Amino acid sequence: MNTSRDDAPDMVAAKSSPPTEAQDVTVEELLEAISRMTASEPHVRCREGGGPLAPLATALNRLSNRLSAAPVGTEDIFGPRTLVAQSHSIMITCDTEARIRFINATFPGLSPEDVMGTSLYRWLMPDIVEPTRELVQRVLTTGEFAKIESQGVSDFGTPWLSTQLGPIKEGERIVGFTAINTDITELKHAQLRLERSNHELERFAYVASHDLHEPLRKIQSFGERLESTSAEGLGSEGRDYLERMLKAAVRMRGLIDDLLAYSRVSSTHRPFTSVDLAAIAREVLEDLSAMTERTGASVTLGELPVLEADPTQMRQLLQNLVANALKFHREGVPPVVSVRATLDPRLQRCELRVEDNGIGFEEKYTERIFNVFQRLHGRSQYEGSGIGLAICRKIAERHGGTIGARSTPGEGTTFLVSLPLRQRAAP
């Protein structure tokens, strides 16, 4: 054995003074090495000296190398081989040319031999080959992990798979990649059914709201004619009824318009483009200038990023949040509103914050305020239909983001919208 190595394994020492490499190997040294190997110490090394027993010491060291490299006993039963063999996920390793080098299982009707040595892309649906190839190239180039959903092919249909890609390294060099495929067919079917159901509900809401406009317009039109031509003959009680009817019609029109706006978030939208939130915010403040002057509000804009989004919906999001802050102000206290954002370069996300000094609310109602037609205050106190914040949440979710709020009664509210700076795919 070469004793100059820093990482040399254990050396079986003689019972007297430590022997040198030049001295003959003794029977005692060999017996001690064999004893330690059989006592689950496969890494033990015997001194390779001179003498007639030296070849036995060399042979023992070779055996030690093989034993150290192979799992033994219960370590094999409870080790990674068992996990891979019994996993419900399909685990694949590929070289840099995307040739399959190992696979633990396949779809029904296929054996591992059918796919070993073939190209990974052969087993993908045509429309997902190029996106997968691009992700694989990114993994091989950067060493980062990636994830993609796709459909595979087999004699039993086209199952949906969620594939986690990762690099295989030999030292610092990337020599291939892993692909761990999880069958998400049931989940995908449930998702598609839910999406169809949601689309049908949104379409129904749009059509129903649109069709309600015409009869409502007639109610308002004839009510106004009645007021202008026959108000005197109705008497005080009749005029009161007529006034209430017209006010109810105005509220109904507002509800219908808001319901249409809510349904359009998903049913009609523009592609994602580069959007300057600072420019959008300035336009929103211009639109709300009359409300700002009426309430004596002070609105400040901080740093706002450029991100990929639907510009119309970003404008709608900011307008709803700022208008909400201006509306729910404390009596006799001018609103103070701040709009700013912070960036997380690592996650490539921004957090938009709209903060006010308004009436606030109990945080136990946070989830409720983002639901359609939910109000925490009566219509007599604050006008509105209760759809504005629901629209904000729908816009945030459509952009792969989230929305929440922190609030204290009598002190104010901060709305927090987390949005990605880049969209992974078209909506």
UniProtKB/TrEMBL annotation:
So what does this thing catalyse? ATP + protein L-histidine = ADP + protein N-phospho-L-histidine
Q: Which InterPro entries match?
A: BphY/WalK/GraS-like, HATPase_C_sf, HATPase_dom, His_kinase_dom, HisK_dim/P_dom, HisK_dim/P_sf, PAS, PAS-assoc_C
Q: Which SUPFAM superfamilies match?
A: ATPase domain of HSP90 chaperone/DNA topoisomerase II/histidine kinase, Homodimeric domain of signal transducing histidine kinase, PYP-like sensor domain (PAS domain)
Q: GO CC: one term? A: membrane
Enzyme Commission code(s) on record? 2.7.13.3
GO terms under biological process: osmosensory signaling via phosphorelay pathway
> Pfam families annotated for this entry?
HATPase_c, HisKA, PAS_4
Per the database record, which ranges form the PAS domain? 109-143
- Which segments carry the region annotation Disordered? 1-22
Keywords linked to the UniProt accession? Kinase, Membrane, Phosphoprotein, Transferase
Residues annotated as domain Histidine kinase: 207-423
Query: What is the name attached to this protein's record?
Result: histidine kinase
Class in the EC hierarchy, top level: transferase
Query: What terms describe the molecular function in GO for this protein?
Result: phosphorelay response regulator activity; phosphorelay sensor kinase activity; protein kinase activator activity
Q: Which residues are in the PAC domain?
A: 141-196
